Amino acid sequence: MKRPGLIRWNFFVYFVVIFGLGFAYIFLGLDGHVKRLIEHKLSAFNGAPVTIEHATFKLSGPRIELEKLEFKDPSHPERNHFEIGKVHLELEWQALLRNRLVITDSFASNAILYPLQPLAPFDAQIKSLVAPPKSNSLASASDFLSNPSRTQLPSDDVWTAVPSFQATKALNSELDTQVAAWTKQVDALLETDHQQIDASKAAQTQDSEAQNRIILGQLEKSRLELNQLQAQVKADGNVILSKVETLTELLPHDVTVIRQGVKLPNLEFNQLAAELGAQQTRAVIDIADSFHYRLIPWLEKKEQALADAHGRNQGTEFYFSGRLLPPRLWIKKLELTSKDNTGSGAGDVIGRISDLSSEPSEQPAHMSLQASFSKAEISNVQLEAQIDHRGGLVDDRLALNVASFPVRDLDFVNTPALRMGIEQATATLNLEYLAQKDSTVVNAHNKLDKVSYRIESTGEPIKKVFDDALSPLTSLELDANGQGKTDNLQWTYTSNLSDRLRSALQQVLSQEYAEFNARIRERADQKVRDAKKAMETRLVTESDAVQQKIAVERDEIQTMIESITKKK
């Protein structure tokens, strides 16, 4: 018969373990070992070194007492960003003997949060629920406006790609072909005419009337052919000339091609709200990032699938479920308290954690915090959170409201041409985080008051644009919503900052583009006029040369005709 049961530990096992701990405590420096072990575990969780000034392990209880815990800032390891004056942990003996840490009751006091340092936005080493923007249209626009060569027209090499240039090239080729055809026809007629003229001269020496009539008819025919060829040359020239006139119609297409080859910022600025919103949200969502990417994975990493065990006692079989063992880490109760003492910067803090375990699938955790940190200028923080993975269903929640906290040195653009952002402001934050199954929803409302901006630029025009746009805007509001797959949230942003900057940039860039386009059109028009003039001049020159040859030949034939006619 099988029945549930617990591990039966006999007196000898307890005696050996307690004796071993006492021996280690007295002779091996158990306090130092506990201190180093806790420092190592907390440093791994913090992502930066954690130091403990003093640690004491007491067998009565047992309990651990820690004094002055200093947490280094992961973004700035040279400074502390959090301190706790004293921590008292009451442990459970049976769990400790099974290599499990169950904290039945604990408290921490004198918490100090130091002034927040600016986050390095989208540091590749720091995971964030907010994905970095794929573009930076603000930086692109500022680089363009601060570039003194932005008003320079493209070099002449670029104009070889415009339609009018290609059409002019084709017309020149057509004219070459036509001139060759004219020359061939003229040369053929001249050869025939010279033969007839020679025959006419020979006939005149013979003074044969019949022969003269024949020659006269042939000369009249040649003169007619020359007249026809001259008319054909004029007609062909007019056809080509009409094609030359159509070069003007290609002018808009020339301007379009040149504009496409010039890199200009897009006036729509469709991504500006996302670019600025991502920067601003990333700066205030750090606690949700820590909750999502550090605390929960850290707990889940320690979770183990514990197998059932079987045994026999006086001929009776029994078994127990591995779940009867406590989690490897289980904080049943932890209270954080602190009173603001003048000059200490500790602030007023009341916090509570219950059932935070390394097996959130069995023990859902609940956390709450009400705090103000005077040294960090943070007041009225209210936090409620839970971690619940029971039944294989994730239900993690975080709600954070902060009545007031400082924002310092938040850059939206930092390029050689422009550094622009918030120098300082006083902010409020309402943040909601919900993770269920494999999807996550994050809502954040961030408001900044008493905003002063930093605008540093190498070019005065761009600085004036942003000064004029931002100086009236002393209050900023941002609504950010992210939802979707856990590690691929799709974000939408609404911000009066992006609206203001978009309007200012569109106004100044529209004026720049209008002036630039006018200059491009003027240059394109000049090039088309030059091309037309060159083509017309060449056409007239080539046509006149052919017609001149025809005229000379026709005059000679006319002279021969008159000579023959007089003799009659």
Short descriptors:
568 residues; alpha+beta; 13-stranded mixed beta sheet; two-stranded antiparallel ribbon; 45% helix; 31% strand; disordered N terminus
Précis, in short:
The protein is α+β, with helices and mostly antiparallel strands and 568 residues long. It is built from eleven helices and 15 strands.
Report on this structure:
- By secondary structure, the protein is of the alpha+beta class.
- The chain has a domain of 269 residues.
- The longest helix has 72 residues.
- The protein starts with 10 loop residues before the first helix and ends with a helix.
Helix/strand structural class: alpha+beta
Low-confidence stretches: 1-9
Sequence of strands across the biggest β-sheet: 1-2-3-4-7-8-9-10-11-12-13-14-15
Shape: rod-shaped
Q: What is the CA-based Rg, rounded?
A: 46 Å
* N/C terminus separation: 154 Å
Per DSSP E runs of 2 or more residues, the count of β-strands stands at: 15
Q: Considering DSSP H and I runs of 4 or more, what fraction of the residues is helical?
A: 40-55%
Number of helices: 11
| Run of helices and strands | HHEEEHEHHHHHHEEEEEEEEEHEEH
Q: What is the residue-averaged pLDDT? A: 81
- Largest sheet composition: 13 strands, mixed
Strand content: 25-35%
List the helices and strands and how they pair.
Elements: H1 11-27, H2 30-46, E1 50-58, E2 63-73, E3 76-91, H3 93-97, E4 101-113, H4 137-146, H5 163-206, H6 209-245, H7 251-261, H8 272-284, H9 286-302, E5 309-313, E6 316-320, E7 329-338, E8 348-357, E9 365-373, E10 378-387, E11 395-414, E12 418-436, E13 439-457, H10 460-470, E14 476-485, E15 488-495, H11 496-567
Parallel strand pairs: 4-7
Antiparallel strand pairs: 1-2, 2-3, 3-4, 5-6, 7-8, 8-9, 9-10, 10-11, 11-12, 12-13, 13-14, 14-15
Helix pairs in contact: 5-6, 5-11, 6-11, 7-11, 8-11, 10-11
